[in-house]
């Protein structure tokens, strides 16, 4: 491979789904998948995965910890359709039915370095109250036809959602040849200064030096 | 005591109770052992120790061991001593208690009293308990091993305890511990043994006496080593401590709930208590302990610091506390060892631990709502960039501004007395005088005048009386003018000098008068006039010369003037004369002219008058000008002399030089009158200071200086300002202070110095200030802004304002190298402007203003654009042009006026970019690029090849490919269809991006009550209780899978072939033609003897072939499942693509024929060579799209068998099962039962129809009708969800149209009607056949979306393609034309799914027609593919089926019954008279036989080629004879419609071909394209015959029908010679 003039750039994503903060629920597990555009292709690693079920600890912070590793490398020719991590959390309800507890998505950070993302999670709302009751009773909550819906903007206007909790994901990003192809994604010093937040939340942005 | 109290705020009630119980126990013990206390003290202590350990008395045994410390135990610096110490304490306490107990007994006190005295011990325990509890949870390694605590340390700990109690506010035990222990020397290991002894000793001594000190020490000295001399002290120390404790505990008791219990203590008498306390309590002294006591005897204090050793800084302790501590320590045994050599308590430099030992707070932030997390932002300096000096932040960029405030002088102050006022004025005048003197303007001017005069004289002398040239003359006149001006200037200066002098003298006189008047002196001013004598004669001479010179000059001037005027006069006179002559002609005119002239003259003469005062006012109107008067020289001289005497000193008069000195004595205050004294006092009270404000911020102020009597204040202070901001203003505010109040007197603004100004370049400047504050006094002070008069009569009032001069200077500080520490020029000039000038044009005017010339101009002037700066060249140019008026500001408004700036390439370049084009096309979802992966990242990597296909297609749009279509008309149609398809697809792409909730969210429907849904709520609840594995399981719906996350190999087609009926059976081969009939007769025998048929089923899909096992007989049962993989085109599994898959599943039934061949003679018995042939018997075709949309297909299908099957007969098994036959009689042919589904179940593509409704496609229908139809459909869907109901449909233009508009009688082709006039039934069949011959093309295939587009009949006939609905509509319309009663049935059928059939009512029975196959079924036909009848449609109405059942057999077709059929148009909503969308009449094109024949040849040729291609390894021989024979059959077959020809056919062939084993069949299909024909031929597998001697025959016949409808026949046969 001629490294001098590359035709693709590589994006290596390491990290982990650290845990979640769902104040009301317990025994949750999480599914993740990457959603990316046409010009992207995963070269290694798992595109989809499912975590173990975790319970809340007894210590003061009632956090659900998964520490589920993510390791994927993408190659691409075009930053359009930059990969997104789609996370959906499931867990049993009162009757033991497995119901969805939240959907969320975030773009993989652009800049190399360490990043932590707190993804606010949400679920679709039942269309009306009785439906809400029956869905609760029968354990068949409304779900997205495809969790990947949350990674796209189209058609979302028809849904109503209710926020649920937060999932924290940490990323370590390495890119290769992006600059050679003319895409400058950040400071050369690899200092993460700023990145887009997902949704409305003010995120914790650690200022880490690499 | 208070501290104690606070430290044990909350002893729990329960704890207390338990403690009390313990106490009781202890008491008992105490009592029991009181006699032998000495030996038991140890034990008691251990018990106590235990009670401390949560009061577990069981451990008493080993606790003794614990209390004995291990000898080798490491003396770690731990906090364990605490418990040990308390233990130790306890031992004392108990001992003490015993004593008191005894005392109490002897005194006969009550038991309660004892208890009270016992209280402390238990209290202590409770304390310790609490301590233990609180600390146990934190695992403190220090505390963990506290049991192996060396006893030797106890003493220290006791001390520590004491210290802790006395010292206020020690943070933690650990800190305190560290403080006091870290530095201590370790004790020898063998201390324990001694300790024991000592303890015993102590006890003894304490028993004897508790208060001795010296004695104990002596005793100790005798017994114990010098190591621990203060053990005794400790003991005596400990006891009082306990007493202390006791006191404290009382207090606690009171504070708590058991207040009543405490009252018991009151029984103790006061004196008693005092007595007790005096025994127990010890109050350390506050006084400083002398060093001698602290140090060992005969030792001098040694100061390490003095010896040059480093001594760390000791922690701060208040002296009293230290004293108390020292006193206390000294009481303890061995107390002295706590002191260092310098006599101070040994201590570590800093007892505070470097790292915090407090357990860290546990993830407090984790509990926080993530939204509330603290976000760390780095502190950033606010960037008011323009206010700051660039680079001011770096250390080099220090700028220093020095402000030197030297002092101030008041020129008026409210406290001025009158004398002061005069004095100040005098001083002012004198100052003026001095400056004048200094400037010496008069002398200067005099010199100049002299010089000028000399020059002038020189000129005159040189040239003598000669005529002067022009230049000279001008020069002379210039000089004389100059002389005149200078003289005048000098005169005025001289006059000023003189008046000033006069004024000074006058003021001084006034001042003197005032001093005389008021009889005291306030000001030190003293004016003396110095006289300077001059040489009188010289002076006179000079004076005269001067006058003479002046006189001469004046004369000359006047003379010159006169000459000039005279010349003018002459000229005027001449003019006048001229005028007079003219007067006669134009009298009137002339008069006016004269007037004008006269006026001119007067003006001139006015001027003249000024100098010479010769002429009076000029008379008005006299025509003749007056000659100028001769100047009067006499008067001139007089004037000059007068003036000289006025402004100049008289000749010989001495020069007066005033000298003002402030050396005069002031009258002492005592001598002054009262008011003056008050004023003077007032003055002394005042003081002044100056505030320095930099950029309106106070940065400094001077010291306050008191006001002197001379009203001068000297500050003499220099302020160095380190500045960061650009200097904008430097303001000095003068404040006056009276007592404690101060007020602003005046402000002085000092200009910011130039950057080059440094200290040595600038001298002090005086800045005047004034204040208009009104001040009045009742003493001598004149006040300010108050009218003041110096005259006796009070006239000539003056109003004086406070004013003065501030002398100061401002300059830039100079750095080390002498460079001014000033910011660069560009930045610091003009604070406000500097800000503006550095503004960007855009930010200043705003982006919208960029087109406004006026604003640009404004900005340019305000920001002082440098016109020479090349950067500004363009804007200057623009401004120039704009102001010249050539270009006006545009009058339009632009939304994206800066767009161009953001374009990084031009549009053309962008267009040319291949990569961009690729991306654009992909985004537009152009078919070729829809799923294009990985667009190359670089332009050069995008090859042109990518676009080739696309461009080809674009080009092809114009060119018709006849090769593919074989028929020019069809090619055109295909193109037309393609266009429609594209437009529809575009329309649907829009619809596709319109989402409804169900597209995104899967939500369980609320079960409708009583509906056909999953059941009512209760039932569902019941479901919860259902057993997990029911005995009678119900079929559950499989989970549906969305199509997009699939890949190749995921989808499988499951085909379950169950059984078949009525498979044609083999006809035995007979050489003789007559045999066949015989065979038929002997059917039953033959049946038994020979295998009729061995059929198997072969399923082919996407060229993948699977087959079942072979079964026997005409009614075989296979019951086998076949799995066929499915792969979508291009690997795209989106719903849209799957829907448009055109592949079909061919289910072929073959007969397996085994021939024995080539039996070899040698081993006849051993091996038999057989040849297996398969003969095609029939097929069923099911399009994949149907399976996909239906998701499962289950039923019995009619096998499409060829009309003639050579070698087979459709024999019926007569008489075997009669009952079944009766049913079957109605229909002919073979049937097969199938179950087909897709694994996994795919979600069928969303119906675009619904979306179109959402989108509300435009419609020409009445709104009311649309609403009604929507309601009708909705009600139908709610009531009967599985019955299709259609009221409105969408036409090819995407418009919604009511369905009845499609039904209208239409004429079939005339040829068909004429074909058999006599037989209406045959005509009907022929019409149906004609309709069925129009190729069928499902909409979802053509439009890649599940939509139903209905074309009208003429469109249908033009397109020659359509799905069931179009066929049904056309057939229905034909039937109506033929006078039949016909309806359209909207229902579901297998395998089509939702479809349309035609219902006719003929001969009192209903017939159901399948329009695509031209088959008709009776209402009670078992094998009718129609399964559900949803609604009926005719031209007038739509009826919805509301009967219980939906299958045709159980449905009553009587539409008049309202309880069976719900009409759309009823009485309430009558038919609005909808006109039909169909044409009135259909026009058909005639049949083109030539074209048909040509097509026939081409098809034959292609098929022959294909068959040879499919047999690559075998030669393919064509039996030409057979072919021609077959060719003759085909037209006959067409005519008969494939009915009942087999028999004759076979005979004919047989006779022709003799002993050939023929198997073959004709295929019949409507013609659309060549591909389906090839597929059909391939699927029969005729080409697979492997026999070496096989020959083939192939014949094609195309029968043309009107309007280019073609019926294609292909006759295939294989011949094997026997």
Automatic annotation (TrEMBL), chain A:
Broad class of where this protein is predominantly found: cytoplasm
Pfam families (alphabetical): B9-C2
Domain of life: Eukaryota
PROSITE patterns named in the record: C2_B9
Subcellular localization: Cytoplasm, Cytoskeleton, Cilium basal body
Record GO biological process: cilium assembly
Entry keywords, A to Z: Cell projection, Cilium biogenesis/degradation, Cytoplasm, Cytoskeleton
A GO cellular component annotation in the UniProt record: MKS complex
Xref: InterPro entries: C2_B9-type_dom (IPR010796)
Family statement drawn from the similarity comment of this UniProt entry: Belongs to the B9D family.
Function: Component of the tectonic-like complex, a complex localized at the transition zone of primary cilia and acting as a barrier that prevents diffusion of transmembrane proteins between the cilia and plasma membranes. Required for ciliogenesis and sonic hedgehog/SHH signaling.
Assembly with partners or alone: Part of the tectonic-like complex (also named B9 complex).
Protein's name in the database: B9 domain-containing protein 1
Annotated source species: Etheostoma spectabile (orangethroat darter)
